Amino acid sequence: MSRAALPISRLIWLCVVSGLLVFAHPARAHEDYAWVRDPVFKTATGAHCCSEQHWQPAAAGELTPIPGGWRHVPTQTEIKDTEPGIYLTRDRAGRLFRCIMGGKLGCVMEGMGT
Question: Most buried of the four, 23, 38, 41, 98, by CB within 10 Å?
């Protein structure tokens, strides 16, 4: 191997390793909501609510309380408290969270005072 090829091969190796490290890091939501991984959080169909990528604090006006549940205003989907899907939040700030999967409201985490 010539001396000129050595630095280029090292540069290529460094690019490959750097690229792998970037893609090896798990995707996260805006914050790490590790508590959402708890298997007790199920939808009405019995599936796990969703992952950290889908749980987000609800924006103002995004969720509307309805008798016995919540309505997600953008998708017009609802969750009733007679079925799984509404839980008390474990978020330290007590925020209202929502999980949107497949364009539908999957679960809600009610914060303190909601």
Answer: 98
**Which of 94, 101, 103 has the alpha carbon at shortest distance from 41?**
101
CA distances from 25 to 22, 59, 69, 76 (A): 6, 27, 36, 34
DSSP β-ladder status, 86-88 and 77-80: unpaired
Residue 26 DSSP one-character state: P
In this prediction, residues 35-57 reach a mean pLDDT of 77
State residue 39 phi and psi, 5-degree precision.
-65, -10
- Give the predicted TM-score (pTM) of the model: 0.62
The model's pLDDT over 85-99, given as tens digits with 9 standing for 90+, comes to 998 887 777 788 898
Distance, CA of 114 to CA of 97 (rounded, Å): 11
CA distance 74 to 82: 22
Q: What is the mean pLDDT of residues 41-61?
A: 82
Handedness of CA 69, 70, 71, 77 (dihedral sign): negative
